[in-house]
Write a structure and sequence with these properties.
Elements lengths: L4 H14 L8 H13 L4 H11 L3 H12 L1 H17 L15 H10 L1 E4 L5 H15 L16 E2 L2 E2 L5 H7 L2 H11 L4 E3 L4 E4 L27 E6 L10 E3 L7 H4 L6 H11 L3 E3 L6 E5 L4 E3 L8 E5 L2 E3 L1
Antiparallel strand pairs: 1-9, 2-3, 3-5, 4-12, 5-11, 6-9, 6-11, 7-8, 7-10
Helix pairs in contact: 2-5, 4-5
Length: 316
């Protein structure tokens, strides 16, 4: 990692921001930073939290990343990142990407902007991830009073937990990657180190803030096609906080958004004028949606928590 010139550039850029001396970075730099973090397997929140809160200097940053990922992994990542930098602007021949979805699934995806693919992840692996979440948050499924104890990594319905072999196995699952490859029409993908999710039942003292329709977009920059996703790690019927989406909105997003000067204004109007539908599913189901499809978690009004792993990829 130290032998990668962009590693020091990344660190120095955020050091300047910490000191209030940050300089504007163009889209090319931002994409390079994102791919760099993806290839090195670093989650955004965990990395920025360390740099802005705990990091003493560049050596300390390298030590932290080495302890997190291992020296051998970082060495391979440096080679992969260098290869990407050397080839990112090269012309690429047409690809023979996987074709694993049915015609009906592809039609539904194109028309609605989201898709549920059942039982993509084995039930036993879902249970492993659910158990990891329970251990990390010190919660016991038989004792609901333990479901709401505060934890620094639990923020709303998001659990800022990125690094263990069970999470990694999902990111690098050939079956899951093939689905994304077909929808991106490319095999040249890198996993984005995404977080987990934990959403217990809403009650009089706890309600999640992330149940309002929104986009995870910056409308001040060109918006490229991107696929977001999650996997239900337990059964998620309509009352257990499933994802909600506005079907088909992606088809009119480009024209619709032109009337708004900010994303906040657009989202406020969206919530008044548009109707969402829930996307319930079973354990191991993969839920995908386009980045221009409005979405949010819904309120969990059941008697059990909802557990998920977020999953997405970037095109290289």
């Amino acid at each position: 990692m130290r032998d990668c010139s962009f590693s020091s550039q990344f660190y120095e850029n955020h050091e300047l921001i910490k000191k209030g001396k940050g300089i504007p970075r163009d889209a090319a730099y931002q994409r390079t930073e994102e791919i760099w973090m993806n290839i090195y397997g670093l989650g955004k929140f965990e990395t920025y939290a360390f740099i802005y809160r705990d990091c003493r200097d560049y050596d300390h940053f390298i030590e932290w990343a080495t302890a997190l990922k291992g020296a051998d992994f970082l060495k391979r990542a440096s080679q992969d990142f260098q290869q990407w930098q050397e080839n990112k602007n090269a012309d690429r021949p047409a690809e023979d990407y996987p074709k694993v979805l049915t015609a009906a699934q592809l039609t539904f995806w194109e028309e609605n902007g989201y898709l549920r693919i059942p039982q993509v992840l084995e039930a036993a692996h879902c249970d492993k991830l659910k158990q990891r979440i329970c251990r990390h948050l010190n919660l016991h499924m038989d004792y609901p009073e333990t479901w709401y104890i505060a934890h620094p990594d639990w923020q709303g319905i998001m659990l800022q937990m990125y690094q263990n072999e069970d999470i990694e196995a999902v990111r690098h699952s050939p079956a899951i990657k093939q689905i994304f490859a077909e929808l991106y029409q490319s095999n040249q993908l890198v996993a984005i180190p995404e977080k987990l999710g934990y959403n217990p039942p809403q009650n009089e003292v706890w309600a999640p803030p992330q149940t309002k329709l929104h986009w995870d977009l910056n409308i001040d920059q060109p918006i490229e096609f991107h696929i977001q996703g999650l996997i239900y790690l337990n059964e998620v019927p309509e009352n257990r906080g499933p994802l909600q989406v506005v079907p088909g909105f992606h088809l009119r997003f480009e024209e619709w958004i032109k009337d708004f000067s900010s994303l906040d204004r657009a989202q406020e109007f969206l919530r008044i004028t548009e109707k969402s539908v829930p996307v319930p599913g079973g354990k191991g189901d993969l839920i995908l949606w386009r980045n221009t499809c409005p979405h949010a978690a819904s309120a969990n009004l059941s008697e059990l928590p909802r557990f998920v792993q977020y999953i997405s990829y970037n095109k290289l």
